[in-house]
Amino acid sequence: MVCSVNRKPTLIDPNMISALIGRHEISWWSLNIASSDVLFRAIIAPSDIDPCKPRIETDYVLLVTSNRMDLRQGYVSRVCLPERDDIKLDNIKGTIVGWGETYAGSGRSNILRWAEVIIQARELCRSAQPDLDPNKTLCALGDSGACQGDSGGPLMIKDQLDRWVQVGIYSAYVGNGGKCGPNMLMLFKRISSYWRWAIDTFNINELLDMIHIA
């Protein structure tokens, strides 16, 4: 979904999008590393999305694959999704990953990088961005953080069973004239608020059939 030149929401053709799984390095000399392409047959957007009036809470779509994803090759690991809406995340350590800039203006990283952040209390998020719904957003701080090119990347935590759980999707950061930097407040979509929408949109068996993990 994009905002067209005549300021009307326009859905992107899914045939114009592809993804690459199993790749840790995206430079040209790493092309021989085991990886696979994922193609898409549909893009499903929430009914209240409007890219001409962007809001973090509605900045998401569901991509439907046209071929099954093979998770047995390359740098592929599975991550769980939150099972409940009431997971306590205040002051919990999280991990973010991405190929975005390492500092403002540095250009995209060729290697997948990670950083540790601390998920902040809802009160801090609300005071920094009063117009955001704290039930649908998360915010985090860290000595290192997300930057341009990291949008859509995961915010993950380790649960009591030592499993990675993705609790957020990176969207933006606050202040500093639009330039990323240390100790910038990062904003994330709270996945638990959208998981029910995905389940209601799809039959769960159809979702599971998109993934090949045997």
Automatic annotation (TrEMBL):
In the record, the note on similarity to other proteins reads:
Belongs to the peptidase S1 family. CLIP subfamily.
Q: What Gene3D superfamilies does the annotation carry?
A: Trypsin-like serine proteases (2.40.10.10)
Presence of keyword Disulfide bond: yes
Q: Which residues, if any, are the signal sequence?
A: none
Q: Say if the entry is tagged with keyword rRNA-binding.
A: no
What InterPro entries does UniProt report for this protein, alphabetically? Peptidase_S1_PA, Peptidase_S1_PA_chymotrypsin, Ser/Thr_Proteases_Immune/Dev, Trypsin_dom, TRYPSIN_SER
The protein's name: Enteropeptidase
The alphabetical list of record keywords is: Disulfide bond
Residue limits of the Peptidase S1 domain? 1-203
